[in-house]
Amino acid sequence: MPSSSLAAPLDVELRPDRPALLRVDPPGDAASWAADHREALRAQVTEHGALLVRGLGLKDADQVGAVFARLAGGLMTETEAFAPRDPEGPGLYSSTPWPANQPMCMHHELSYPLEVPGLMLFACLTAPEQGGATAVADAEQVLKALPAELTERFERAGWLLTRTYTDEIGASLAESFGTDDRAGIERYCRANAIDFTWQPDGSLHTEQRRSAVVRHPLTGRRCWFNQIAFLNEWTLAPEVREYLVDEYGADGLPFNTRCGDGTAIGEDVVQVVNATYEEHTRREPWQAGDLMLVDNIRTAHSREPYTGERRILVGMAEPLRLADGCPAPEGSGR
């Protein structure tokens, strides 16, 4: 059934500055409601990139886990995390820890592993007093709006994520790889196209080259799909960047990004990317009990600064190995 025929029964509100919104009457059993409406909800996500469902009255992790399972089947176990999350159930996590007064800029979740989540699920159990929206931006529109010279450079060369694992900042080896055994980590890196070096102090440095532009597996449309700006040093608050550079050196930052050919990404490029995201941002303040579904390939998401307590649960589903997710080196003939 075409997705357009499902819009009227679901009565989805479409507004240019906000994500598609579906208001529902509180169901007796949210998980059963999710199962009954799964196909219609997924069609709306495919059509609009993201959908906020309001009125389900989600109240606890068990209920959220049941709803997520009915909507997405099996949830993914997070690997290669850049920051530790608290587990809230099988495949169910707390939102990424990040200072409440700092924005978490637009990104696609886990765009750097070979297997990426196709669908993100968010549930709000406690809404903040102010701010804290999980905003979204259409990656097709962002790609079209970015300067052609910039996108052509990254489409040709890809992007490079560099990481140095320390005991002080970010996810530990065990949290990222599921083990702290050197042999196990090395096997994972070789199997997942990650170059690795053990440093003299025992820390691990990795580099992985990925595509910056991919085709959506359903629509075939080109999307700006990466974390070039989000994980770059110039997105950090100036005082945080200065501390990390002083502490670890410019080449030893816990995470950073480069162009796929190894050249540095300037502050001006990061500013252009983040400004373009902002021009295409749609936001709706969270209300307790809300559910949000996000097509992770087509749609970037962010987290805005907030005050008060904020509790968002997160699930990742529909793992994909994108055909164009890992580019061949330039000059390889591919």
Automatic annotation (TrEMBL):
Keywords carried by this UniProt record: Antibiotic biosynthesis, Dioxygenase, Iron, Oxidoreductase
Transmembrane feature ranges: none
Cleaved signal peptide residues: none
Matches recorded under InterPro entries: AlphaKG_dependent_hydroxylases, TauD-like_sf, TauD/TfdA-like
Cofactor field: Fe(2+)
Gene Ontology molecular function: dioxygenase activity
Phylogenetic lineage: Bacteria, Bacillati, Actinomycetota, Actinomycetes, Kitasatosporales
Domain TauD/TfdA-like: 31-316
Protein name, per record: TauD/TfdA family dioxygenase
